[in-house]
Specification:
Elements: H1 7-20, H2 26-38, H3 55-69, H4 74-78, E1 80-83, E2 86-89, H5 102-109, E3 119-123, H6 129-137, E4 142-147, H7 150-162, E5 169-173, E6 184-189, H8 196-200, H9 204-209, H10 223-235, E7 236-245, H11 251-259, E8 267-270, E9 276-282
Parallel strand pairs: 3-4, 3-6, 4-5, 6-7
Antiparallel strand pairs: 1-2, 7-9, 8-9
Helix pairs in contact: 1-2, 1-3, 2-3, 5-6
The structure holds S-adenosylmethionine.
């Protein structure tokens, strides 16, 4: 690549390099990464196409290009992911939030009329994306986010501060509901649910860049549900609700676990592709 780049030339060269690497959206990726290196929104790059990059910016662009050519996701390189129209910081300790998980946020917000000022618990909070998206659209709600990974808890707290939600949140390191003494109105969780055999077949972008603790659900993928469903039931108030993200083909197994732990019949919520992505159940 050229020694001294203009913004326009950097975008062109990265686009060509990403095409050659077989990436799906080479020009979009190039625009985001060059924009990130020069601290400009991608939409402003064209107007500044002739600006020459500083040496430090060129070093950054080369680093980003090399990482992307190795198929590192753009969000991992920039350290940002959009979720529910909000911007979240990521770290190697957090899952990169998936758009399908917005199904849980929408399902919880459908219950706004039933809980005037709910106390919400998010188990396995990661970046805090689920809890923080709910709180952003539900001003009367407050919430606790728990994760076993201290690095994730730190990132969730930073995201809460950036979004102006720190005063309504409490992020803690913990194993599911251990040590929770409060009674909750709503519990949400997107737990690790990938089976051991699915882990072996995962796309490299997932297996290499998302933390294993966020993915591994054990031999049948249900290990986390077996632990957290009874734990959640014990800290839910009467009339409280549990919302769980589930993987493909887990509906019947997770529904059985819910019914065996004093939850009523589940409500299924589908993602935009039409798959059941979330099960909701109320205490009985
Ligand atoms: C699939 S990720 C979900 C992260 C985030 N809620 C999201 O939807 O993007 C599962 C999360 O559960 C956490 N986790 C795994 N085992 C846990 C445990 N025993 N107790 C609490 N959190 C756990 C992981 O560290 C990870 O952050």
């Amino acid at each position: 690549m050229a020694q001294q780049w203009t913004i326009g030339r950097a975008v062109t060269e990265l686009t060509a390099a990403f095409s050659a690497a077989g990436l799906d959206t080479p020009r979009l990726d190039a625009r985001i990464l060059v924009g990130h290196a020069v601290n400009l929104e991608p939409s402003l790059l064209f107007a500044r196409a002739d600006r020459i990059l500083t040496d430090a910016e060129s070093v950054l662009v080369r680093d980003f290009a090399a990482r992307r050519q190795q198929h590192e996701p753009v969000s991992r390189i920039t350290g940002h992911r959009g979720f529910w129209s909000l911007d979240f910081l990521l770290s190697p300790d957090t899952l990169d939030p998936r758009a399908d998980t917005e199904t849980l946020v929408a399902a919880v917000l459908e219950r706004r009329a039933q809980y005037p000022s709910p106390r919400i618990l998010d188990l396995g909070t990661g970046t805090g994306c689920i809890l923080l998206a709910i709180l952003k659209d539900w001003p009367e709600a407050t919430g606790i986010g728990i994760d076993l990974n201290p690095g994730a808890v730190e990132m969730a707290a930073r995201n809460a501060a950036r979004l102006g939600l720190a005063s309504r949140t409490d992020f803690r390191v913990g194993n599911w509901c251990d040590g929770v003494t409060e009674k909750l109105d709503i519990i949400v969780s997107n737990p690790p649910y990938i089976t051991d055999s699915e882990m072996d077949a995962l796309a490299p972008t997932v297996a290499r860049f998302d933390p294993a603790l966020a993915l591994r659900g054990g031999a049948d993928g249900l290990g986390a549900y077996r632990a957290l469903i009874p734990a959640a039931r014990a800290v839910l108030a009467d009339g409280g609700r549990l919302f769980l993200e589930i993987g493909a083909a887990q509906t019947a197994d997770v529904a059985a676990l819910l019914q065996n732990n004093d939850f009523g019949p589940e409500v299924a919520h589908r993602d935009l592709a039409g798959f059941v992505r979330c099960l909701e159940a109320v205490t009985v």
